Amino acid sequence: MIRLGGLTPLTTIDFPGRLAAVLYLQGCPWRCSYCHNPALLPASGGGHLDWSAALAFLQRRRGLLDGVVLSGGEPTAQANLAAAVERLKALGFHIGLHTGGMYPARLRQVLPQLDWVGLDIKAPWAGYDAVTGRRGSGRAVEASLQCVLDSGVAYECRTTWSAGLFPVEDLYALGEHLAARGVTHWALQQRRLKGEAWTPPLQAQVDLARLGVGFEVFTVRAT
Fold first, then answer.
1. Do residues 129 and 135 lie in contact, with contact meaning Cβ atoms separated by under 8 Å?
2. How is the chain split among helix, strand and coil, in percent rounded to 5?
3. How, if at all, do strands 94-99 and 185-190 pair?
């Protein structure tokens, strides 16, 4: 039904308040320099997990797990996402979705079936294409953000940042913009790449108190 690149059998951090498994959906059209799962980028990449095998595993975990997180890659890149979510809901699981927001129409289709969304906000809209390597990506994510805000589904917006991606003043402006749009939950994540020179923690690079103004929940994470 869907192309899978792997599975994490148990996580306590990918779906707030839930014990969950993570299914990694294969394929993503963006090419962000700090991608943590590059093996999942090709739509027909290796390391596939059969959908029926994943369902069999989850059948055995009913009553032990609360939820299933669909991550990637980019889950909304797959046309059968809604049917897959419906199948997982029928097993009794709460469903979380990690998405870059690149396909707002498909996101809108599945939102009524979701229990939580983690939406990546990768940059200020004007600088999106430079981060994702794809033209028009910011417009798509802006539409997806509005879909999430209108849906009433629990969510977190998260931004991965380093000074090499875009200036800190743009980061402050992004935070102000998100708060003005009505975003209540925002997480700031520090970009770290293998082989990259050491950089100081976020606390030493940005004014976290300034960034957190206007949010009910503001979280800082190292990635």
1. yes
2. 35, 25, 40
3. unpaired
Backbone φ and ψ of 150, nearest 5°: -75, -20
Encode pLDDT of 167-208 as tens digits. 999 999 999 999 999 999 999 998 765 555 556 788 878 999
Give, in order, the Cα–Cα distances in Å from 140 to each of 20, 38, 137: 28, 22, 5
Query: Which burial class, exposed, middle or buried, applies to 3 when counting CB atoms under 10 A from its CB (0-12, 13-18, 19+)?
Result: buried
Are 11 and 22 contacting, i.e. CB atoms less than 8 angstroms apart?
yes
pTM score over 0.90: yes
Distance between CA 109 and CA 180 in Å, rounded?
A: 26
The two tokens of residue 91 are: 């097993």
Helix (H), strand (E) at residue 82: helix 81-90
How many angstroms separate the Cα of 17 from the Cα of each of 63, 115, 126, 135, 154? 16, 11, 34, 36, 12
* Tens of pLDDT, residues 62-86: 999 999 999 999 999 999 999 999 9
Tell me the one-letter amino acid at 152.
Answer: G
DSSP string for residues in 140-155 = HHHHHHHHHHHH--EE
Structural Rg of the chain based on CA atoms: 17
**Parallel/antiparallel/unpaired status of strands 4-11 and 20-25:** antiparallel
